[in-house]
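Support request, please re-run this one:
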Amino acid sequence: MFLLAFFALIVERIFGYPDWLFRRIGHPVTWIGKLISRLDAGWNRETDDFAARRRMGVLALAVLLGVTAAAALMAERVLLVLPFGPILLVLAAASLPAQKSLESHVEAVADALRKGGLEAGRKAVSMIVGRDPEKLDEAAVCRAAIESLAENFSDGVVAPAFWMGVGGLAGGAAYKAANTADSMIGHRSPRHEAFGWAAARFDDLINLPASRLSALLFVMAAFFIDRASPGNAIRAVLRDARHHRSPNAGWPEAAMAGALGIALAGPRSYGGQMIEARFMGEGGRPELTRDDILRALKLARVADGLLIGLFGLLAWIIWQA
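Re-run finished. Output below.
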């Protein structure tokens, strides 16, 4: 299983998910999203009371995970009996991590700031974060981009690869289903506070190992980056991670902030409402520039290389056992 994750990470790192393929057939996340939308429309009835909507949300999550895992398991078995089946399986698995697209979206923010200034940077960062872009100055734009890089490295790269290593294509696909459900219905809006409760809690649970591993990878990557500090990264994680509003996002954000000597998170505005939050990397520089985005990207690339190497080592150890 870790061998599959190892090769999937390498393929996605190099090629990403081709635009022409997305235009033709979509992406596994878009297929999963359509199923979630159908379940939400059909089972999240506003006439039901809170408890009933929560129960239906639990059932919807179970159906989503069951359908996704079963489809992926069937695809895996079919692919393995076809000519060049292992290669086809790796290509299918490579659709689950998002190293290349994450890097390109974050890099686009730095490029926009360089070419078009603050307004262009706000527009670029609005594509990857949910906070109000018109209220962001340049430092806040950079902070938002780096936070997105740190959190999505955990959620979009490490976690699907980890669960693929544990459960093969079905494990990785089931993780993507749960994570997509959290992003679509796992928020505290009047419509989804009850129905999305199970998706949000389950996503917190399954992202726990990846968030800790991501923090460790950022700490290790800091050894290879000029002016980065592994020691500060460790101290930031131990001091700040538990104070984040998310039980998981604080780990990679604190590690990246400490490693680079910057401050992430803190107060921000969503939908016109100010959210008070503690800084990750407390005492680090709060006034960030596009150069900090580029340094964060360099740290993430090294961490990604370490992740691939780790999975290759685990695959070799299992192969030798």
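The chain is about 70% helix and 5% strand. The chain has one domain: 2-320.
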